[in-house]
# Entry
Amino acid sequence: MTISRRDLMKASLAAGAAMSTLSVPSALRAQTAPTAARTVRMVKSSDLSTYDPIFSAANITQEHGMAIYDTLFAPDAKFMPQPQMVGKWGVSDDKKIYTFELREGLGWHDGTPVTAADCVASIRRWGEVSAGGQMLMARASYISKKDDKTFTIALKEPMGLLLDILATPIGPCLFIMREKDANLPASEQVTTNIGSGPFKFNEALARPGASFTYDRNEKYVPRKEPSDGLAGGKVVKVDRVVWENIRDKQTALAALQEGEIDYFEEPSVDLLSVIESDPELVLEVLNTSGYDMYLRMNCLQKPFVNVKARQAMLYLIDQEAFMRAAIGNPEYFKTVTSWFGNGTPYTNDENTGWFKKGGDPEKAKQLFNEAGYSGEKVVILQPTDYQLFGNATQFLAAELRKIGVNAELAPSDLGGVRKRRAKKDPVETGGWSIFITSDSDYSRGEPHTNVTMTANGEKAWYGWPKNDEYESLRAKWADVATLDERKSLARNMQKVYWDSVGTVLLGQYFAPTVRRKTLTGLIGMPDIFPMWNMQKAEA
# Structure
């Protein structure tokens, strides 16, 4: 008898469900077995390998955080900050002292109340690693508890973007944790998964590498305002959400077509015609700003410790060729040359003379020679379970070899890439030279909160570029009063950044999602797709 891939997947899912059922006592099983109509099954773009959304800014970890934790403020659909956990707030006449009072009904999943002390500890921990948080901590005189429900942020000088920074949807977001968890340094992972958010993480049904389960928090009290972007009432309309880890995209699509899953986050472009022909499926782009793909270089180690080697990468890249390798269909990609993305108010053409259709490999080779490159190994982290970046990574290695660079791929799953990129060591002792990732195009207009847009050396994001002139300009972002002044500042920042380089853009792409038509109410925002508000009709 021939066993198809579909049969194998069904057997795997059935076995997993049986194992989960056997591992839970019958009394508990009766309480935690929602009907299929009240359960949403999703295949996300990557697997959840890190739980702590302050320790890791990965989108999948931020979405996990958005499910189980809550935030003080949140952006609405127009990206204006709105109170979330905060009930009342006020600011002194001199704009230096902000006082925040928590709203009623906030409680941790363990049954204890949320307090101002939890908020203070969470802000301080987040402030260690968030770009906006670091900016806030540098300007804060103190952040302290006033009483159990009230805390204060006192500033050395006014900071007009304070609420925007507290509400940022760009990871790491300011998720409020229990004080005892938030007292851990940001370099140490919180592993308890106890928040105060609209979902509870189901530890009993967690199967790393296979699936993760989130149950509706019955005690969560949503705000009374209607849902609006990431703000308003976080009303959960299903009982359970399960993230299924199905890495093969054809298998995931087949599961979607047969109703075994309800949502498939990132189908490959070659499957779109099949999806469009299925009347039971809905194809849509939730992040209408798109994503900007880029490569990040390790600026602490050879060869990219030398600025000329980093500049060489600007000239090497043929963005259209990279996007064809990664995406395929030109309907879903564009070139991008601005450090501030394609669609933000600060997009500009300052210092972009390096861009050339088809790239300039001869110029890249010349710059590598001027950098003194002498055959050092360039290790490129290759995610084998994420086709988009995996294809671009292989193409990059081939392009580097063409100009005489000793490029070597280091294959692992995406979780392994995220762990290894934290290493600052030389490649000979487990370090790396290049990895590929992406940001939402929207986030490129937020250099005060987007940690990937920092250049403050050891405190910067992975790759650790250092440019004091750029950082002094970025520090002014929160003080600039008008849009025109900020546009001028953006041009100056871009000019300086493209001279020193820590990131090289590969192109902008748009990633459609697909769902069964019975699943509705999904919220489309850049970076984070929340799970509240969605509902599932009977098939």
About this structure: The two ends are 32 Å apart (CA to CA). The first strand starts at residue 39 and ends at 43.
